[in-house]
Design brief:
By secondary structure, this protein is mostly beta strands. It is built from one helix and eight strands; from the N terminus they run αββββββββ.
């Protein structure tokens, strides 16, 4: 039933961080962006994406996405270095359940 599935999702969410998180910077003549990808595990989960210019502090949420395994951050500057981390977020009966953070990934925009 739906309640059993949501309970299973909550169990997964509490224990794990998003896996296979990768981040890469791209820069061309007309565009620059950071491409973020991860393994999508759960249909009911949102993914919060945080970015900072420091590896250990200053992270701010830049986007929440649902049912996807990628995000493209186009609000980056050439020559800058960014750090990204993500986590799953699931709502159950009005309560929010969040995972541990992924490992922080460094992206250099050339």
């Amino acid at each position: 039933s739906y309640n059993i599935q949501l309970k299973d999702v909550k169990s997964i969410v509490k224990k794990t961080a998003p896996s296979s998180f990768k981040a890469k910077g791209y820069s061309g003549w007309f565009s620059k962006y950071a491409s973020l990808t991860w393994k999508h595990k759960c249909e009911n989960a949102n993914y919060e994406i945080y970015r900072s210019t420091s590896p250990n502090s200053g992270f701010k949420k830049i986007k929440t996405v649902k049912n996807t395994a990628s995000y493209t951050d186009q609000k980056v500057k050439r020559g800058a270095t960014y750090y990204y981390k993500i986590r799953y977020v699931v709502k159950e009966n009005g309560k929010i359940c969040k995972t541990k953070w992924s490992k922080v990934k460094k992206v250099k925009i050339k």
